[in-house]
Recover the amino acids of this structure.
């Protein structure tokens, strides 16, 4: 199993939209996928048409133990889901008091590694212990980036957090990919930021960029990935292309 | 002094863009304004052309005491700024151990209330102790909302947090206004969400909506509010209209 952690503490850059639609695209390419929702807002859970967890279930149980994680198998979307909910806020507080507090998710996913080809982990917009658990459990980091000023500023802080975590815990999370989201080539900021990203990160920058596409914003209100809401939409096709590009890199062509 | 706390735990909805441009618009209307940056990402600080704080300065000092808050007076933008930086992450952790941990910002602003007509508080995308301090210090809550599914979902959680805080601490933060951001009337989701907001919140929903306007995304890379970057842009004029609408409500016409 390869764990891809989708993280960026900058808010609203398309983490959840990427986690849901990448999971659905990988599933359509016959990979078995586990989507893990680490955000107490539970957007990946409701965006997949599922109810938020109450108390010690789903992602709370995966982090705190207790054995009733209740992974949900989604027939139409094609992936399995570890759902989340506001009780994850309590889990974050409880983790602060634990030894090896960044390890619980990694330990949980180790138990699942025979069953899945990929785990995709959606993180909240913060560098808190929920995101830290995601980074520690990840093999590769996927950073969704809007091509805007504030989003670029946050990238350095994220990569700094990753290298500190790797040093402190002996983990080896590598920056696997940066994906440009809500991409609008007509906007000069977009071209400037693209230039900066390609200068600094070279081949980590995926060639596939996800265009701004209203179908991607509509799909979650129907509880579906765009692939099962509007198959031919620009956004849907871009996420399929992105999954193809990642598979090509990770599995070799 | 009237304190307006700009909060929404949903990421990327335009909290910082609203805090900066509302502050500049109120200042242009001859009100004296203090902008407080409570986000460790410090977007309101860099978006105002200022350097992030290091250690115990700015917002860190306002929350933890120590007396070197170093409020910055911005001549061109017209408002004063309490800057922020990544040391605020440490402040959030330290606050957890304090008595009356939601009070520090409110106490700090009480000392400034003779000097300013308005305080505008920019919050991070989380319901953590930084945001809680902002909510406790606020007289009115201003919620920037993107007219999209995930943003609507988070609103109930935010209002629930506010009523719990009010009950527990005897505070009386009221929902002053909801402002629609990145507003695109051609998109059917926008009209559906607008309908929901107007049904549930009636007159708290501001008539002014802020359109999607690239000038608002470009201005922060020059460290300026849009008013001082592109005076006639659609986004600039919308924030002036919004400031007018708020002044009308809060000060009476
Ligand atoms: N390519 C796109 N085109 C149009 N809308 C998009 C696109 N990607 C995301 N969105 C919309 O933009 C908003 C932000 O996206 P999303 O919620 O996925 O970001 P996020 O990084 O997960 O946010 P948070 O920081 O709150 O977790 C959502 O309303 C989503 O529907
Ligand atoms: N009306 C608008 N038109 C175009 N772009 C906008 C508009 N408002 C905000 N933006 C851009 O959208 C992005 C998100 O806005 P902003 O950073 O203000 O949101 P936020 O809620 O403060 O995010 P966070 O949750 O990370 O604090 C920024 O890159 C900003 O420049
Ligand atoms: Mg999200
Ligand atoms: Mg912000």
């Amino acid at each position: 199993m390869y764990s891809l952690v989708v993280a960026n503490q900058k808010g609203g850059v398309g983490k959840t939209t990427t986690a849901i639609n990448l999971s659905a695209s990988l599933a359509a390419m016959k990979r078995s996928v586990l989507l893990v929702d680490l955000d107490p807002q539970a957007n990946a859970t409701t965006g997949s048409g599922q109810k938020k967890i109450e108390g010690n279930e789903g992602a709370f149980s995966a982090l705190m133990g207790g054995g009733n994680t209740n992974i949900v198998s989604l027939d139409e979307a094609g992936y399995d889901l570890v759902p989340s909910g506001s009780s994850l806020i309590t889990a974050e507080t409880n983790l602060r008091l634990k030894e090896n507090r960044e390890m619980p998710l990694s330990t949980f996913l180790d138990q699942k590694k025979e069953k899945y080809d990929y785990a995709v982990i959606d993180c909240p917009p913060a560098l808190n212990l929920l995101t830290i658990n995601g980074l520690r459990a990840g093999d590769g980091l996927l950073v969704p980036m809007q091509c805007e000023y504030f989003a670029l500023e946050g990238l350095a802080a994220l990569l700094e957090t990753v290298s500190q975590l790797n040093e402190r815990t002996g983990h080896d999370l590598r920056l696997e990919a940066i994906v440009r989201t809500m991409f609008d080539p007509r906007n000069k900021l977009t071209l400037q930021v693209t230039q900066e990203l390609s200068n600094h990160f070279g081949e980590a920058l995926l060639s596939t960029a996800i265009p701004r596409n209203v179908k991607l914003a509509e799909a979650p209100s129907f509880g579906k990935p765009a692939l099962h809401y509007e198959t031919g939409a620009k956004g849907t096709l871009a996420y399929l292309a992105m999954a193809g590009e990642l598979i090509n890199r990770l599995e070799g062509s």
In short: The interface with chain A takes residues 9-13, 16, 41, 43, 46-47, 86, 89, 96, 124-128, 146, 148-150, 153-154, 157, 187-189, 214, 217-218, 220-221 of chain B (CB under 8 Å). Residues 24 and 77 of chain B are 6 Å apart (CA to CA).
